[in-house]
Amino acid sequence: MKISKFLFSFFSVFLADQLIKMLFLNGFEFKSKCISLILAINKGVAFSMFSFLGENLKYIQVAIIAGLFVYFIKEKVISKHPVLSGILFGAALSNLFDRFTRGGVVDYVYWHCGFDFAIFNFADVMIDLSILGFLYFYFFKKNDKI
């Protein structure tokens, strides 16, 4: 049962993210006063940091994600929190998939109301939400599972 929750969460986030990205890769755009939905290929990480690493960045990320997955298995994090784990890994691997197939991460949400913010995507939001979920359980609900 726990593995099915993990797999459902993983594939739901991965597929949703890839489908949304396909819209932008096929030319969809929307611009308004505060937010623009426009295609950008990010060759770095947040705020384009580490873009100087070029092709090496994707291999570094493979190692980080693989190490995190091993840690999650060893510490039984996936069995304790299969949905959050599935969301985290589905989103991380969707962005990694972009690096291998498109040369960078497909980003498309650009906030520019009052200040310019980093451009991001659905997977980035899911990574952030899953990390917030893990922090919540760590600090407030140590014995609860999701």
Which key features would you list for this structure?
globular, single chain, three-stranded antiparallel β-sheet
Task: Please tell me about this protein's structure.
The protein has one domain (2-139). The protein is 59% helix and 12% strand. The protein has 5 helices and 3 strands. It starts with a helix and ends in a 7-residue tail after the last helix.
Strand-residue fraction?
5-15%
Number of domains: 1
Radius of gyration (Å): 16 Å
Count of individual helical segments: 5
Class per helix and strand makeup: mainly alpha
| Biggest beta-sheet profile | 3 strands, antiparallel
Write down the overall geometry.
globular
- Could you name the ranges where pLDDT drops below 50 across 5 or more consecutive residues? none
Helix content: 55-70%
Main β-sheet, spatial strand arrangement: 1-2-3
Euclidean distance between termini CA atoms: 12 Å
Strand segment tally = 3
Oligomeric form: single chain
Overall pLDDT confidence: 91
Question: What is the string of SSEs from the N terminus onward?
Answer: HEEHHHEH
Architecture blueprint of SSEs:
Layout: H1 2-25, E1 30-31, E2 35-42, H2 56-74, H3 77-80, H4 82-102, E3 105-111, H5 122-139
Antiparallel strand pairs: 1-2, 2-3
Helix pairs in contact: 1-4, 2-4, 4-5
